[in-house]
Structures are given as C-alpha cells and as structure tokens.
Amino acid sequence: MRQFILNVSFKVYALDELDEAGKTLVMVALKACSGAYAPFSGFSVGAAVLLANGEIIAGNNQENAAFPSGLCAERVAVFFANARYPDVPIVAVAVTSSVAGKPSENCAYPCGACRQVLLQSELRFGNKMRVLMAGSREIYEADSAADLLPLSFTDFAS
Q1: What values do phi and psi take at 4, rounded to 5?
Q2: Rounded mean pLDDT for each run of 10 residues along the chain, 158 residues in total
Q3: 55 classed as catalytic
Q4: Which one of 17, 20, 55, 74 is the catalytic residue?
C-alpha cells in the first residue's frame, strides 16, 4: 500500500483585514445576493469576479423548478465575464451567501461544479485566481482555485 497526503491551507480574515480590492469584491458579491432567484432553497448566493482589466462582474444563483436546471452564482459570474471579455483572465473571485436577506455567518463555498469551472478558467488563461469565500464573521482566502479541487479534471490530453 502507498499513501499520499493532500495539504491545503487558507488564510482567514475579518472583513476589515482584507485589502481594498478584496473588500470591494466581497461587498459586490454580497450585494449580488439580493438579486438571486432562490424560491426553492431560500439560500441566496452572490459572486463577483475581478478581471485583469479591472472590471468586476457579479452574478447570483438562479434556481429552477426543474432541478438541476438552475445555475450557481459563481458560474453565472464566470460565464458572463467570459462571454463579455473572452480574452481577459479572472484574477479573483468572491463568494457570499444570505438567508432571508441576512448575510450568512458561515463562509460560502463553491460547489463541486463551480470549483471545476473556476479551475478551468485558471487553466484557460494560465493564471491562478484568488478565491475569497465570505461569511459575516470571517473570510477564507485560497491562493488558487486548484486549492479547492485537488483531484480535478485537468489533463484530458493524456
């Protein structure tokens, strides 16, 4: 038998400890929660992506009665950013959530599909993106989407 160990570390911040770019991204993501369409779960998610050209694109979850036909906030934001600016890499993403209009205490984490989409964006442009997962008490920061999905679909050529 052989064993390997995966190690991932995250920085943990309070909102006021983040740099200005991080604070802005989290606040845009939090505002995006208010536009979510979440009549089934009641769980609103907002995401904001910062592009290399300085643009910030926000997205929110959009649920559908024909589950899983809805879409997560992260994928809404990433796909819109890629459609609008197809040649501009994403350098950072923030994810937040709220319930009944109140920000969630716990950090919001991307689902598996969103983790793969974020990682694919890194691979597409050959750059790492900062990932901020925010709750009202603290914010976790990963240096790369790859940190969120260590055993990913990354090598289809072999």
Answers
A1: -130, 150
A2: 89 96 97 96 97 98 91 98 98 96 94 95 95 97 94 63
A3: no
A4: 74
